[in-house]
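Standup notes
- DV: blocked on the single-chain target, sequence here:
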Amino acid sequence: MPTLHILPPEVGRLTQLEKLDLCSNPLQTLPAEVGHCTNVKHLALSHCQLRTLPFEVWKLTQLEWLDLSDIPLQTLPAEIGQHTKVRHLNLSHCELYTFPPEVGRLTQLEQLDLGSNPLQTLPVEVGQLTSVRHLDLSNCDLHTLPPEVGKLTQLEWMDLRSNPLQTLPVEVGQLTSVRHLDLSNCDLHKLPPEVGKLTQLEWMDLRSNPLQRLPAEVGQLTNVNHLDLSRCQLRKLPPEVWKLTQLEWLDLSGNPLQTLPAEFGQLTNVKHLNLANCQLHTLPPEVGRLTQLEWLELRSNPLQTLPTEVGHLTNVKYLNLSHCQLHILPPEVGRLTQLEKLDLCSNPLQTLPAEVGHCTNVKHLALSHCQLRTLPFEVWKLTQLEWLDLSDIPLQTLPAEIGQHTKVKHLNLSHCELYTFPPEVGKLTQLEQLDLGSNPLQTLPVEVGQLTSVRHLDLSNCDLHTLPPEVGKLTQLEWMDLKSNPLQTLPVEVGQLTSVRHLDLSNCDLHKLPPEVGKLTQLEWMDLRSNPLHALPAEVGQLTNVKHLDLSRCQLRTLPPEVERLTKLYWLGLSDNPLQTLPAEVGQLTNVNHLDLSRCQLRKLPPEVWKLTQLEWMDLSGNPLQTLPAEVGQLTNVKHLNLANCQLRTLPHEMGKLTQLEWLDLNSNPLQALPVEVGQLTKVSHLYVYGDPLIKPPVEVCSQGISGIRQYFDELERSEENVSARLKVVVLGEKMAGKTSLVQTLRRGVSSLTEEEDRTHCVEITQWTPDDNITFEVYDFGGHDVYHLTHQFFLTQDAFYLLLVNLETYSCTEQRYTEAVGFWLDTVNARVPGAVVSLVGSKKDRCRSYDVIREDIQRRIELQKEMWERQRIARLTSIQASQQTGSSELMEDISQQLAHIDYLSRQRLRIVGNLLCVSVKPESWFGRFFSRSPSWVSLRNLLLETANNKTLFPTLRRVLPKTWVLFQQLLKVSMDTETESSDEEGSDDKSLSSGETSSHGRTKQPARYWLTLTEFKRIGRLAELSVERLEPVLSYLQQVGTILRYTDIPELKELVFHDPPALIEFFKNLFHHSTKAIFETPRLQSANYTRVQLSGFEKDLCDCGLIRKDVLTCMLPPNISPDIVTALMQHFGLCFELKVSDKTDPAQHTVLYKIPWYLHKQTPGELMSVWQEHLPEEQEQLQLMCDIRGFCPRGLFQRFSVGIHHLVKDRIDWKDGLMAYRQDYPILVCSKPVADDTYITMATRGRLPQAGEMWGVVHPLLEVLIQLLQEWPGVLYSLHVTCAHCIKARLDNPHQYDLRDRTADDGRDVRCPRVKHTASTSADIVYRPSRLSVVTSRTSLTQMRPSQQNDYYKMTSDPRGLALIISNINFTDPSRNRPGGEKDLDRLRKICEKLKLQQKIREDLTAQEIEAAANDVSRRDHSSYDCFVLFLLTHGDVAGVLGTDGQHVSAENIVSSFQACQSLVGKPKIFFIQACRGVDRDPGQEHTDTTGTLDEGRSTPQAGREASDGATETTKSPPPPTSAPAASAASLESPDAGERTLPTASDRLVMYATVHEQLTWLFIV
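- DV (later): unblocked, structure below
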C-alpha cells in the first residue's frame, strides 16, 4: 500500500475540506499551507512520524475531532488552546512529558485520551474541561492527580490504570457522574472515603494494587455491578461491601483472605464470583444465599470442607474447586442440577458422595490428582459427560458402568494404577481422545476396536507386551503414542491405521517392524529410537509423507535402499547405530534439513550424501572419519556442522564454500592445521577446536573466531612464517618448599637460596631460555592458603606443572601427603584434566631417607588415582541410572553429562617419572673440586626432555607470522629496559617510594604496571604492524598470557598489562598470609590513622572481611589508582563493594569492600529469628543443592558468595554461609563438608502457590555456581532438589531428587523414597520449570562451549508446533453466519504449511465444543513440538467468544488452559483471536485506497461490524515467527538485581482483533 512521505503545499487550496485523514503515513512534517484549510472539522494524524506540528495547524479553529495519537510528540504548544470547538482529542501513545495549561480553554471537549504518555503531572487547568465525559490517562507516569480533577462533574468514563498513583485526592468524590472507573495496576495503598460519593458507579477495577483495606464508604456504591479487587493485599473487607446488592461480577482472587463474614450472603445478585488463590480455610454457610450465582471459582484455597448450604446454588453452571484441600465433598452438591463443569483436581479426596450422580447436566468433570481409589456407582450415571479427567488418581480398576458414558469425547486415565481396561469401554463410540499413558496395563481388550471415532490415543509408559489385532479398526486415528512399552512386535493390522500422522514407538523392545507399516501412507512423524531394530523392512519406503523419522539408538547396520522414496523427509536421526556405511540412495532425500549420524561407525560416507544440498544441520561427531571429500563443499546451506571426536587429520579446501555455516565443531581431532579457506566462513559464530593439536593457526588464534583466523592467514601472507616454541612451567607446592630458590637457580644457572623476606607472595613470573630453541615462562606460586584465590587464574592447558615436595618436612603419613602432594594434584586435576605433572623433591641435602619418601609418595599417588576413578565410575553409574528412568526430554542433558564423564576418562593426569630429588644449596669446595654436577641440573634436563616430547606437548612449536614474533621481542626489550632502568636508579636506596629522589640526585622512575594502547601502537609500528593489524597480535598475546587486557571493565579498557606479574603485584599487600603484616605497610603506617584505628581496621578484616577503600588505597603503591585494583578484584570474584551512608549526613557515604576469604565467624545467632528452625506449616522450602564429590576447589564458596552479590540485598555473611533477600523472599546459602563431599545449598521459603516465583528467586543463584564450576572441568558434582517433606519433618539425611526439568509425564505430586513413599511433595517444588534450565547443565567438555544465554526460542522441531484452528462460519442463527470465513481458513492453511505447523482444524463448534477442543489440545503431549499456535475465528462480545449456539466461552480460560500444559512450559504459545470484544463502535477514520485491492476479488474496503449484521471479514493474521525472541532471564530482570522468575503467563502472546469492549473493524468482500 503506497505511503506519503511529504504532503504538497497545494493541499492548502482545499478550502472546503471538512475531514482530512493522514493516519499511518511516514510524514515527518506538514506544509504550512495546511493552515489554509480553515473548514476542517476532523483531522487525523495518528501513526505518522511528526515530532512537531507547524504553527498553522493551530489556526484550524473549526476543528471538532483531532487525533494525534501514536506520533512522537514530546510537547504541545500553548496554541492548542485555540481549538475551542474540539470535542474529541486523542493524544495517546505520544511522548508527552507535560500537558500545557492552555488546554483548559477546550471547554467543549467531551473525550480526552492521554493514555501511554510519560506524563508525571497534570496542570490544574484540566479542571476547566467541564464537558469531558471520557478521560483516558492509562499507562502514564502520574504519581498524583490535581484536586481540580474533581471539577469534571460530567465525567462518565475514567481510566487511570497502570500509573504509580499512591493516593487519590479527596476531590475525586465530586465525580458523581462516573459510571466506569479503572484504577488497576496502580500503587494505591488506600482509597479516600470520598470514593463512596460516586453513587452512579457501575464498573470499578482496583486489581493489582497494594490495598490492605477498603474504606467503609465503599458500601455507598450501591449501583456497582462489576467490582474487581483481585491481586490486592486485602486480608478482610469492611462490612459495608456486602451492601453492594447490585453486584453481578465480583473478583477477589489473589488476596490473603482467610475468612468471609456471614454478610457475604447479602450479595444475592452475584452471577460471577472469583475467590481463587486466597487463603480461605472455610466458606460461611451464608454462601447458600447466592442463588443467582452461575460461575464460582474457588481454586487454590486451603479449603478442607464445604458448607452444606452450597447445595442452594442451584443456578451454578461452572464450579472450580481444584487445588484445594478437600477431604470430602458434601452430599448437597448433588442439588447443583444446572452444573455443567465441575473441577475437583488436586484435592485429597478419597471418595465422592453418591449424590454427585444427581448432577446430570455435567458435561465436564475433572478429578485428576485426587486420591480416589474407587468412584461411586452414581458417577457413571452422568450420561451427559463429554469430558472426563481421572488422571493421576490411584484407580486400580474401572467398573463396567463406564460404558454408559456414551457421549464422552475426551477420557483421560493417565498416571493411574490400572492393570486392566474393561471391555465395556467399547461402547464409548463418540470418544475422540483416550489417554491411558503411565498405567501398568499389560493388555487391551479386543473391544478397543469399537472406538472408531478415536483420533488421539496415548498408551505410553505402560506395560503392554502386545496390541490386540482389533486396534486396526481405529481408522480415524491420527495420533498414537506407544513409547516406553515392552512391545516386541506389532500386529499386522497396524497397517489399517491409514489416517495416522503421528506415531511414537520409541523406547520399546521392537526387534522388527511388520511390512504392513508401509501402509501408513499419511504418516508424517515417526519415532523409533531406542529399539533393538537390526533392520527396516523395504516397505518403509512407502511412507512417502514422512517428514520426521527418528531411528537413533537402535542397532541398525544398514538402511534399505527403499529409503530413497522418502522424499518429503525433513528430519532424520540415525545417531548411536553401528552403521558402517549408508546406501547410495540416501542421496535422493533432497529435502532433508536435519541429519544426525553421530556416534556411528562410519569410516567414510557415500558421495551421494553430499548431494543433500538442503541440509542445514548435520552431526557426524564420534565417527572414525579420517578425511572429508572435496564434495563437502556442495552443502552450501549447512548452518550447523559437528565433526567433533572424529579422526580427521586434514580438512579439504572446499570447506570454504560452506558460506552459510554458523556453528562448526572440530573438537578432539588430530588436526594440526586448518585450510586458509576457513577464513571465508564469515557467518560462523561458534567455532570449537578444543583438544586439537593445532599449530597453524594455534588454538589461541582460533579462539578469536573466524575473523581472527582470517587475519592470521592474511598476516602470514604479508610476512614470513616463523616457528616459535614456548612452554609455560607452573611451579607449585606448599610454603617453604623452596620453589623460589629452585626457579632462581634454573634461571641464573647457579645455585641460589632465597632469603625469608624475598619469599613469593601470590605469583611471580619469569622467563628462562636454556637454549635457543625453547623459551620457558616459569610461574612461581606462593604456597600459603590465602594465595590460592589467585593461583587458579593461571592454571591452564598446555602447561608443564612442577610440584615441589619439601623432603625435610615430609613424613610418611596421610596428612602430610595430603598437604604436600594430594591437595596440589587434586587442584591440577580439577582445573586442567590431562595436565602433565612432574614431582620434584626439594632440600635433598637435608634429608637422608628420600628413597623411602619417594616410594611412599608413589604408592599414595596410585591410591589417589584409584579414588578419582572410583568417583568417576560412581558418577557414571548415577547418570546411567537417570538415563534408564528419564524421559526423552531429558536425554540431551544426560548425553552431555555422559560426554563429560567420557572426556574425563580420556583426560587423565599424566605424571612424568618418579619423584626427582634435588638440592639448590651451593656446592662445597669438595664437590666443585671433583666437578660433580649439581643435582638440580637433572631437573633442567628433565624440563628440556619433557618439553620436546611431542606426545605430551604436540603444540609446543607453532607457526606465527614473523611480524608477530618481532612485536613480542620488541615488547620484551621494552620491559627489560624499564626493569634495568628501575633497578639501577633505585639500587642505592631501596626505601624510596616512586617518584622520590635517590642519593645520587636522580629521580627514581615509577614502576610501569601497564602500557596504554597508544604506546602499543608505537611498538606495533616498529614491527611494521599497522593499527588495524595490531589487534590480532594483541588478542593472541592475551590468549597465551603474555599480556592481560580487560576491555569489559571501564576502568581498565584503555590499559594493557604488558607484564602479568605487575598485575599480581597489586594483590601482594592485600592477600598476604599474615594480616598483621598487611597493616604494617609503610604507607599505611605513615597515614593519618591512630594505632586504635589501625587495630580496628585489622579486626574488621579478620572478623567481617571488610576493608575501607581509603585504607586499601594506603596499601597500594602511590601511583596506582585504587579504582583499578578494586575493579580487578571484583572481576576475579575476590570482593564486592558496599556503600554505607553517613549517619549524620545521608548524602555522604563510606565505600568498603568485603573479602569473604577473611571471614572466620560462624553462623550468627540472630539468624534463627528470621529463618526459623521449624518451618511454618503454611510454608514450603525450596532447596537446591550442589553435591561436589571429593575435591572442592579452595575459595569456590567465597567466589560464589561474591558472584551472587548483585542478585541479593540485605545480606548477612559468615564463614560458610549467608542470609539475604531476593524479591522479598528470604534466601539461605550454606556450604557444608559431609564426609568426602561438599554440599552447597541455596534455599528459600514461601507458600506452595508461589512455587514458580520461588524457583525464579533461588535458581539464578545456582546458575552463578554452575558458571564457576565450569572453570573446574575435573570437578565431579551433581545437582539436586531437597525433598520438601523431609525438610518439614526435620528428617536426618533428607532425600535428594535429581534436579531436572518438569515434563509432561510428571504428575502433580512426587512420593518421597525416604519414608518408603508414604508421604508426598508437590511436583511444583521438585521439578524445575524447563525455561530455567538454560545454563545449569554442564557444558560438554569435549566441546568446551562458553555459556550462552538463549536470546531466541528453539525452533528446530518438525513440525515446528501444533496449530489449532477453530473457525465458526455457520451459526444456529443464520443472520450471524460468517461466509467470508472460508477465505480466512484457506489462508491460514497456507500459512501453517509454510511455517511447518501441524494443523488441527475444527469448524462450526458450539461454546462447549470450543472449550473441549482447547482443553483436548492443551492436555496433549507437546514435547516433540517447539511452539503452539491457536487461531480462533468467531463472533464475540465483552463476555467472551461465541460458539455457533450463541453461548459464551471465556477467551482467558482458553489461553490459561495452555499455560497449564507442562510440555509447553518454556515454549512460545501464540493466540490469534478474531472476534468482537464488546458492542462499542470505534468511530475510526475514513480512508480511501484507490491504488489496488488487497486480494484478488476483493472490493474497496469499508468498515463493517461483525456482531450482528452478517458482514464478513477477511483477516491476515500475522504468522508466528520461526525464531522468536525469548523472554530470557535478562528480559525478566529488575534494573539492579538481575532477578529471574518464570511468571504464570510467561512465553505467551495473545493478539486480539480489537480492544476490550469494542467491535472489530473488517473488510467487506
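- Follow-up: The longest strand covers residues 721-732.
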